[in-house]
């Protein structure tokens, strides 16, 4: 199973939030990621 996060294309703040979270996830080294 996999969890998938979907980005809503309604506002630029949600885009910024999504990209910020993506940057954090690229730094995390975890077996399940």
Automatic annotation (TrEMBL):
Matching entries from Gene3D superfamilies are given as: Phosphorylase Kinase, domain 1 (3.30.200.20)
Taxonomic superkingdom = Eukaryota
Which protein are we looking at?
Answer: Uncharacterized protein
Query: What does the organism's lineage look like at the top?
Result: Eukaryota, Viridiplantae, Streptophyta, Embryophyta, Tracheophyta
């Amino acid at each position: 199973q996999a969890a998938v996060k979907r980005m809503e294309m309604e506002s630029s703040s949600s885009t910024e939030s999504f990209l910020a979270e993506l940057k954090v996830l690229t730094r995390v080294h975890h077996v399940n990621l």
